[in-house]
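All the exercises in this workshop are built on plain-text protein records. A record pairs a protein's sequence with a compact description of its fold. The structure tokens are whole numbers drawn from a learned vocabulary of backbone shapes. Once this layout is familiar, the rest of the handout is easier to follow. An example says more than a description, so a record of this kind follows.
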Amino acid sequence: MPGHGSNQMLDWDFFLLGLAIALLLYFLPSFKAWHRCHGKYRWCLKLFFINLFLGWTIIGWWHVWTRANWSGPIIFAGRCKHRPQPVPHKALRRFHH
């Protein structure tokens, strides 16, 4: 059959395209977390490994997806070094420290 080989190649192309789309959807929460991690790379790696090993369950995938949505800079805004604020009046300095 002359057309048999071309159908096999077409099936292989659709298989690879479907596999690529499935992997993209599987790791979509990890991509989103990495995009929004803002320098918290250890946190992003934890989410990636949860997605890698538990993403096949719906609960694991949903957990990573919700954590990726929380990864904005507002969550980590309170994690900075404490800098003492200047006290405006001399009489208040003894209460400040």
